Amino acid sequence: MPHRLPPLSALRAFEAAARHLSFKKAAAELHVSPAAISHQIHALEGYLGAQLFERLNRGLNLTDIARAALPRISDGFQSLGAGVELMRATDAGIILSVRSGPALAAKWLVPRLHRFAAANPGVDVRIAASMHAVDGRRAEAQAADEADDESPADVDVQIRFGSGSYPGYTVDKLLPVSLTPVCSPALLTSKHALRTAHDLCHHTLLHDDALGAQEGHPDWSMWLRHAGATEVNPGRGSHFTHSALALQAAADGLGVALAMDVLAAEDVAAGRLVAPFALKVLLPLAYYVVAPAVRSGQPQVDAFRAWLLREAQPA
């Protein structure tokens, strides 16, 4: 037989007051008076037969039992909120919030999204392209400047580029990433046709500065070192803040871009770009499907994660 719970309003008052260590702030959050919070806490302490707060001259302290219980009660309210969202019916259907890096969203995710929509007509997918989904110091600084007030905890699913270490989240490896030069097909038949890596001396190098945001700095220096083309100056050329811009410049014949193979794949398949060299340098970083652990088991989240993993399988 399940245990009888105290009134939900009393538990809510306790959770808010314990987080803020203030009856006044809890009252403001719950839109009630501080006296109402105090009454609810007093009733809960009477129900439990235990003291939850130590009243001090300048604030509150949690007792040991209150401190031990707070994380589970907070998790419980988060789960209740998630359950209510699932039950809330709207004309638009169930909303699924997804965050991805700008390049992967444009070059890989969005071109495939129609297949998920066809299989899940009741799910309204909302894509946010954001550098928040890219690990690295420079990426974090850029993300802080974005007009994006949605915190990672408010996003149902993220496709992150990074190390794969995200405590508190359910994580699946989606796509490994290799670096390879790409260019317009016209450069294969130009005056200085690209036949070996040494021929890059005669062409403009296009730099994707988003790569430089990553630990380990995967850039032209890395690829040229693996290719043995030490006479090619890796620092010269044009720079772009987003991968999609560097790829577009390469397709327009402005030079040779060092690209993540997964981002260039659609343009290569369509003939807009070619990969003139066989060498690909595998990165220790990858794309991962990341979802808050509290959302694990939500049908729309699980369906989207499973769909992403199927899409990532080799054809």
Would you give an account of this structure?
The protein is an alpha/beta fold. It has three domains: 8-87, Winged helix-like DNA-binding domain superfamily/Winged helix DNA-binding domain (Arc Repressor Mutant, subunit A); 94-173 and 286-311, Periplasmic binding protein-like II (D-Maltodextrin-Binding Protein, domain 2, 3-Layer(aba) Sandwich); 176-284, 3-Layer(aba) Sandwich (D-Maltodextrin-Binding Protein, domain 2), CATH 3.40.190. The protein is 39% helix and 21% strand. The strands form two sheets. Strands 4-3-5-10-6-9-7-8 form an eight-stranded mixed beta sheet, sandwiched between helices. Strand 1 (53-56) and strand 2 form a beta hairpin. Helix 1 packs across helix 2 and helix 5 runs parallel beside helix 10 (261-269). Mean pLDDT is 85; it is low at 137-150.
What is the domain total for the residues? 3
pLDDT < 50 stretches: 137-150
- Give the averaged pLDDT, no decimals: 85
Tally of individual helices: 11
Name given to the CATH homologous superfamily of the largest domain: Periplasmic binding protein-like II
**Largest beta-sheet details:** 8 strands, mixed
Strand arrangement across the biggest beta sheet: 4-3-5-10-6-9-7-8
Extended strand count: 10
Rg, nearest Å:
26 Å
Q: Strand fraction band? A: 15-25%
CATH topology of the largest domain: D-Maltodextrin-Binding Protein, domain 2
Give the fraction of residues assigned to helices: 25-40%
The CATH class of the largest domain is identified as Alpha Beta
